[in-house]
Amino acid sequence: MSNANAEQWILGSVRVLVTLSMVGIAGGAAYWAWQQGKAHPWTRDGQVLADVVHVAPRVGGQVIALHVVDNQRVATGDLLFELDRLPYRQALEQAEADLALRRAEAAQARQGAEPPSGNALSAEDEGTEQAREAVKDAAVLAAEIALTTARMHLDDTRVTAPVDGYVTNLQLGEGTYAEAGVPQVALVAADSFRVEAYFKETDLPNIRIGAPAAVTLMGYPDRPLAGRVEGIAFGIERPSSASGPGALAQVEPMFEWIRLAQRIPVRIRLDAPAEDIVLRAGLTASVAVNPTAASGDAPNPVLESD
Questions:
Q1: Residue 65 is part of which domain span?
Q2: Does position 123 have pLDDT exceeding 60, yes or no?
Q3: Does one domain contain both 106 and 146?
Q4: Residues in domain p-hydroxybenzoic acid efflux pump subunit AaeA-like beta-barrel (predicted)?
């Protein structure tokens, strides 16, 4: 073998060895990442959620005063808006007058039921008077209930916040007629923020209730939040289901060699974040669960970089 051929053979062998080494390193790294992913479930498919409380007036009326602005924080009991009180004040005065009338009629009926001095009513007349008195007493009770209702309706013209939260997407304006039972203001409950993370079903064996979790918001990539697994959903909507009772099942075609793992919602309860981290419903989050940590350990972010 000539020197040129020998050098060419050596160079070729080196190239092969380098290529095999690179393939081996890449394969080892992929295997390590796969094992880490199995041991420490991680997903980029997460979202911040919060309870939305829809505030509706108990009575209808024209909005005469709006006391909040969009995105304002409110506390429980804070006044949100007021309705025109005039119709309900008049109804209250009418109820008060009606109650006074019913009480006067009941007193008159009781006075009429008393026989003249020295005279006694027959059994039939006595029964008639007792029935008339009972009717008047029932009318008094009904008037008292109507008065209580009128007072309650007048108070209901002042609509207050039922929870601590944030006014969101405010569309209400003064002069609008607000119908009873129709939501007019939406509040994002301040103490309800949580994260819903969607993990593959193959990750669920390594996720347990109470396990520490690290949540990384897209807007704060270098400041993971601590949390814990609060719950794992027991069901998701199945696309291949019957359209109704007695209907045939709508089975979608599937390739036998491709089986995609379903994603199951896992709820993460967040610890109190730093004051400068603002949680908003709908934010995107990555979530890493550390199933091997003890219940009191801090979460260990694993593979959480975007």
A1: 57-76+160-182
A2: no
A3: yes
A4: 192-289
